[in-house]
Design goal:
Layout lengths: L1 E3 L10 E4 L10 H7 L5 E4 L16 H14 L5 E6 L1 H12 L4 E7 L10 H12 L4 H14 L1 H13 L2 H5 L6 E6 L7 H10 L3 E6 L6 H4 L1 H12 L6
Parallel strand pairs: 2-3, 2-4, 4-5, 5-6, 6-7
Antiparallel strand pairs: 1-3
Helix pairs in contact: 1-10, 2-3
Length: 237
């Protein structure tokens, strides 16, 4: 886990950043640093990711989310803002449904999986297409973290990713939901993000111009501004 934050005259809840499948806090670092200018931020590596020990059994979305919620509670920062990228969107939505008292807001960036393309081949094809638009540094972060995660664990997790009904759980959220996507994200398309928003009681969609799936790395200031506006906090200068 990586944490930081500056004192601020503007009160906002602590923010918890959660990576996606195969990844770690490394590709969240730029967003973390921008958000830390106005308050506490925590970037968490979940079991099996970022060099963390792998569980001795198959862990589905519900169990991973329960562990995430327990970490938030153990830090003494609840209610917090949970921000999840890609599969991290599933974990933060599920955590907020399980422990609504621990969560103030939910933010999802490039959420998966599109309900009209919920298969491993479809997701793999979209990921491959996305690499063509990402920066070399972003691709390097993704691929090196994937290698560290390992193929067996990745494949076990991707089965849960494509079967998790995030839109059904979004309907159960008791807190506001912000959906952020890159303008050119082939994994989280605009129509899918709009359908996901429509399933929730209180949701909005924000698009980051020019960005692809890893928008929090390539456009951290724009993503941070969207989050800050959602929370009613002036952007840090």
């Amino acid at each position: 886990m990586f944490s930081s934050g500056a004192a601020s005259s503007v009160r906002r809840p602590p923010i918890v950043l959660v990576h996606g499948i195969g990844m770690s806090h490394r590709y969240l670092r730029r967003l973390h640093d921008v958000l830390a200018a106005d308050g506490a931020v925590f970037s968490i590596d979940l079991p099996g990711y970022g060099g963390m020990p792998k569980p001795d059994h198959d862990v589905d979305v519900a169990e991973m989310a329960a562990g995430l919620a327990s970490v938030v509670d153990s830090l003494g920062i609840a209610p917090a803002v949970l921000v999840g990228h890609s599969m991290g969107a599933q974990w933060v939505v599920e955590a907020a449904c399980q422990r609504p008292e621990s969560v103030a807001h939910v933010v999802v960036i490039g959420p998966v999986s599109d309900d009209r393309h919920r298969t491993v081949p479809a997701q793999a094809g979209a990921l491959a297409l996305d690499t063509l638009g990402e920066s070399p540094i972003a691709n390097a972060l993704v691929f090196t973290d994937y290698v560290r995660c390992g193929i067996p664990y990745y494949l076990a997790q991707v089965r849960h990713m494509v079967s998790y009904p995030i839109e059904r759980r979004a309907a159960d959220l008791a807190v506001p939901l912000l959906i952020i996507r890159g303008e050119h994200d082939p994994i989280a398309g605009l129509s899918w993000c709009r359908r996901l928003a429509a399933s929730a009681r209180d949701a909005a969609v924000v698009m980051i111009p020019g960005a692809h799936h890893v928008a929090q790395h390539t456009a951290p200031k724009a993503v941070a501004s969207a989050i800050q506006a959602h929370l009613g906090v002036p952007a840090a200068t």
